[in-house]
Amino acid sequence: MYRYFSRWEEATVTEQVMAVLRRRVRTAQGRGGEPSAGIIDSQSTKGADTVGEQTRGYDVGKKVNGRKRFIVTLGLLLVVCVMAASVQDRDGARTTLLSLYLCTPVRFVFADAGFAGRLVAWAERFVATTVHIVRKAPDQVGFAVIPRRWVVERSLAWLTSHRRLARDYERNPAVSEAMVRWAAIGQMACRLARGRDALRQRAWTGQGLIS
Prior knowledge:
six-stranded mixed sheet, two-stranded antiparallel ribbon, 6 helices, 39% helix, 21% strand, globular, transmembrane, transmembrane helix, Transposase_11
């Protein structure tokens, strides 16, 4: 099985399948085949013992020892890059935006304040991509849903629901990226098979079902 997995990755099969499914899902929703914008964010995940020292790091902010996943999405995954958790968001975003530039026509990306600074000018100059920083409201107190940013948080939650992605088990970061793409492929295939978005399962209590 791993032999086929390796061959498919060498032939970029997962990238091609993901692109085809993404276009089909969007077309079924009455939208254009490719999105006009994306949202970038990162997620630090713990690394298992199989993750070597050369490709793992420590995220001081999240207090996580392992790897960091950078994704660009607009509900449906566009690109993913996996690297050591010690990599700063602005540095990891450069590799991710370059992958986005090479793989998709998306040239407008929303991001949170962690990506602000020199990255904005770099993206405009080298990959012709506009990075728009979505900031919290100045008077915000406590939790609040921030426009645009909630989409990428939801996508990361969807991916983490796959047990293989609960932590990083792979020796090679490229294999970790492939596992994320396979999870996205599964989500899109299920959505096409259902013909609609999934509904949240209602919880059961002693008194019956609740929403």
